[in-house]
Design goal:
Oligomer: single chain
Helix content: 25-40%
Number of helices: 6
Number of strands: 10
């Protein structure tokens, strides 16, 4: 199963992809499942799930902890931002989700572990986030996953329709192609990161659009 667990919608302040367009693109490129992991928000995830027909949509949220971002994969509720990483992970687990660290060790992207203990009770780490230039974050993620026997995930971290699925997670659900089946497989580390980097031109375009969106917020 091809699963992109880290996609942003217009419900993130720095993205411009609408749920219906995300679903259309995911189907077009052959993804089986996606997760809308918006920044400290679950509206995009809920809207996308309400529209989905041929694509599995796993609930998710990207939470801004005190020391960096953490994905609450399988979480369908707001988890307060600004808490310690350990508190955030505990709340993810209380909500029935998996704690996944996106773009680890990345200072300029608020990646966890730059200033935080790597012994957190997490289930997995992104080892192929598509938004990279030299791959330092991904390489460090691989080392950590190997050291701690964590699940390895690939993700587009898409803020634009064109980059969805550039990197993704191949999940062996054993035939249980459902939200629960995907989460159980990842928890058992029955997954691996796949895909490639997003075009640097597209990433540069994204940063330009972020500046525009700060001045002219989108109407959701």
């Amino acid at each position: 199963m091809k699963f992109d667990p880290h996609i942003h919608s217009v419900y993130s302040p720095d993205a411009r992809s609408y749920p219906k367009d995300i679903l259309k693109q995911a189907k077009r490129i052959g993804l089986d499942a996606i997760a809308i992991s918006d920044h400290d928000e679950i509206k995009g995830s809920r809207v996308t799930r309400s529209l989905a027909e041929d694509i599995i949509v796993v609930p998710s949220i990207e939470i801004s902890s005190e020391k960096g971002h953490i994905l609450g994969l399988g979480v369908d509720e707001i988890i307060p931002k600004g808490l310690s990483a350990a508190e955030t992970v505990d709340l993810i687990h209380d909500a029935g989700g998996l704690a996944i660290v996106p773009h680890p060790f990345s200072y300029y992207r608020k990646g966890l572990f730059c200033k935080e203990n790597t012994g957190l009770d997490i289930e997995g780490v992104e080892t192929k986030n598509a938004r990279y230039f030299v791959g330092y974050s991904n390489n460090q993620g691989k080392k950590l996953a190997k050291k701690r026997n964590l699940a390895t995930l690939g993700a587009s971290d898409s803020h634009f329709i064109e980059s969805i699925g550039d990197a993704y997670t191949e999940v062996d659900t054993g035939g249980d192609d459902s939200v629960d089946g995907i989460l159980k497989a990842i928890k058992k580390r029955q997954c691996k990161s796949m895909g490639h980097a997003t075009s640097n031109i597209l990433v540069a375009k994204e940063y330009y659009v972020k500046k525009v969106l700060k001045q002219y917020p989108q109407v959701k």
